[in-house]
Write a structure and sequence with these properties.
By secondary structure, this protein is of the alpha/beta class. It has eight helices and seven strands, in the order βααβαβαβαβαβαβα. The chain folds into two domains: 67 residues, no CATH class; 119 residues, Rossmann fold. The strands form two sheets. It has a four-stranded parallel sheet, with helices on both faces. Helix 4 packs across helix 5 and helix 6 packs parallel to helix 7.
């Protein structure tokens, strides 16, 4: 496995398998593997160009690039579990707000649809009746501030469960925005152990798929 992602984050999870380590000359052992799987530490489409550099670095080992894993069952299950645990200890009428960092540049449609798709998958798993999506930075579409403002002013919501799709737990402004609006905010998100388990599950899925393909099944 090779982890692609922001400098420091991939290295913090798997130092020897990070993009910087592998493309910086530490790929010798990987070149002898039966296969190498590359994926980003973020579930959405990201770091696509880096896959070519990793493929060259680990050659002649076969390389399989995972473009996104935002709908992998392991990720959806753990997000749903985090939301359910939080809901069980909070107010029953919580509205769930799913957020993710928006791309900094003008995105392609396929680069932003992940937020809606993941929110819909988790909502279907839990039967959520009240939920919405927003970006914590960046691009076109609803911002977290706009979403929280609409929930309080237009819908009279005073309690919101914030589910961040960002497994890196980067700081965002949602808590400060909620406090400014007088919203009671409860947070549900994955921790580093959850992320490690999901990444392992994604890699296992790729390996199983390739083994079945080679077996002609």
């Amino acid at each position: 496995m090779v982890l692609l992602g922001p400098p420091g984050d991939a290295a913090g999870l798997a130092p020897r398998c990070s993009f910087d380590a592998v493309t910086g000359g530490d790929a010798g052992e990987l070149r002898t593997r039966a296969a190498v799987v590359g994926l980003a530490v973020e579930p959405w489409p990201a770091f696509a160009r880096e896959h070519d550099r990793v493929r060259d670095a680990v050659s002649p080992a076969p390389y399989f690039a995972v473009q996104s894993w935002h709908l992998h069952p392991a990720y959806v299950d753990r997000l749903a579990s985090a939301v359910e645990r939080t809901r069980s200890t909070a107010r029953e009428d919580l509205h769930v707000l799913f957020t993710a960092p928006g791309p900094e540049a003008e995105p392609e449609p396929g680069e932003v649809v992940f937020l809606r798709e993941t929110a819909e998958a988790v909502s279907a798993r839990l039967g959520l009746a009240r939920r919405s999506i927003a970006w914590t930075s960046g691009v076109l579409g609803p911002s977290s501030l706009a979403a929280l403002t609409a929930l309080t002013e237009a819908h009279g919501r005073s309690a919101v469960l914030h589910c961040s799709l960002d497994p890196l737990s980067r700081t965002d402004d949602v808590a400060a925005e909620a406090a400014h609006l007088g919203v009671e905010l409860t947070a549900a998100r994955l921790d580093r152990d959850d992320l490690a388990a999901v990444l392992e599950a994604v890699v296992a899925t790729v390996v199983d798929h390739e083994q079945l393909e080679r077996a002609g099944r």
